[in-house]
Amino acid sequence: MPDGIGDTRLEKPESAAAAASMSVPLLTTDGSTSPASAGEQPGALSVMTYNLKVAHATGRNRWAVRRPVMRELLRRERPHVIGTQEGRYRQLRSIEKDIGPHYDWIGIGRMGGRKGEFAAVFYDTGRLKPIRSDHYWLSDTPSVIASNTWGADLPRVVTWVRFSDLAREGQEFYVLNTHLDHRSQYARERSVELIGETIAAFDSSLPVVVTGDFNVAAHDNRVHEAMLALGLVDTWDTALARGPLYATFNGFRPPEPGGGRIDWILTTPRVTTHWAAINTFAMNGRLPSDHLPVQVTLDLGTHRRVG
Question: In which domain, by residue range, is 273 found?
């Protein structure tokens, strides 16, 4: 896929397509043990994948009601990287404001520009500097805005970023974030093939972190097997320590212990996962999303730095 220099958000997109357009007690107000404090690993990178649930203006779980809960969760955790799914532009701007002054994000709406849901990547600007970024659509024509050729229910988009880690002397790594289709198995499998082509085109000397909502449970679908076949590992499986397992889709119901994990963080094998957890934070019984965020602390190892 194209390897263009990308600015944050949408103002100066580089690709042709873009230019055209530990776990906490259930339902309590107690905070989770954050990755940074859990692992206490110097220089560790904290990563979260989080389906935000698209912002609705009405209803019991409307964004205005959920926003304060999400604000509290993100301010407590403050991951260095957050791969998000389903966020709308105004919702993402709200999160940018809420999480604090040292965060920015990169993404494009799946219908082009600011339209539709994003697979936006938030990052801590005090820790990370984006070097390159791009977006593409999961289809036979990935550079065509909103393209959808594999029978997916909706267009699906990928955002990837090459970062420089300012705390590790500019060492670089990639983050790729996506949201696979919720209905078509064929579309999911073809999407994995295209993601594999993207990863194969990255600088192979650098680590890769993949975040996303894959819409199938890990170890229970060929999509998970196919992602591992790309040369990735599932951080939940390789973590040196981890919290309890919960279904990461909750439907705004109390979290389900031992349920299916459809939100994953994967890495290349040389990355060490010190800690992994599924965060069940809630305030007064209210969850911030219909998904639970998955969090890890990573040691990316020693890799090349910028310049």
Answer: 16-299
